[in-house]
Amino acid sequence: MKIDQLYPVDQKDADKLTDLLTQCFAEDPLYCQLIPQKTMRKRLLPGLFQCDLDELFQTCHVYADSPEMNGIIIVSDETEPQNGVRRRIVEMFASWKTAALLLEEDPSCKTLWNFIRGQEYLNSEWTEDLGEAPRLHVVYFAVRPSKRGQGVASRLMKAVLAFADENGMEVSLETHNQRNLEIYRHYGFHLFEVVKKHFPLKQFCMVRPSEAAQGTLAAS
């Protein structure tokens, strides 16, 4: 997967990317639920995102709007061949590092238990119900708070959607913020299902059909 309009992010940008994600998700409903204490959340998020990035750089495509990284979109191309054993090892190692970090910060295991109970919100398993159509999954989509409203989000999302349309792919994503639903509907996403398990938190699972499927729907 290659999107020439965007800046490809790699390991050399990891610190800058960790800072961006920490800023963007400090008050996200999911992380507020998993780590209710604000001071603990502030301490934990950078390390948690570093654990995520160890896995994501190996399994996903990471793009920013520019080298300054005002916004980020991290995409998994589900059509790419996967080494199942290798991917599982990478995921297990990331999970182990995350658990160790959570236990170090909170030896009571309460925060770790929140993450265990919240797996349905973290692993995107709902996409298994989407069938076999070629698909991209947006893992992270975020814009630095100070740069919102300046077209950064539109540039990132439109580039990914253009790639999907050129390659006949649908696009999936999830959000835990109901205010985001209209934004994603503007880009052609529709609500597929709502996940709510163990917490008073809703995960809104959204899908944008491929361009061909959109044409079929419009004609029917």
UniProtKB/TrEMBL annotation:
Domain of life according to the entry: Bacteria
- Name one molecular function that GO assigns to this entry: acyltransferase activity, transferring groups other than amino-acyl groups
- Transmembrane portions of the chain: none
Q: Which InterPro entries match?
A: Acyl_CoA_acyltransferase, GNAT_dom, Trichothecene_AcTrans
- Where does the N-acetyltransferase domain lie? 51-211
* Keywords, sorted A to Z: Transferase
Q: Which PANTHER family match?
A: GNAT FAMILY ACETYLTRANSFERASE, N-ACETYLTRANSFERASE DOMAIN-CONTAINING PROTEIN
Task: Write down what this protein is called.
Answer: Acetyltransferase (GNAT) family protein
| Higher taxonomy | Bacteria, Bacillati, Bacillota, Clostridia, Eubacteriales
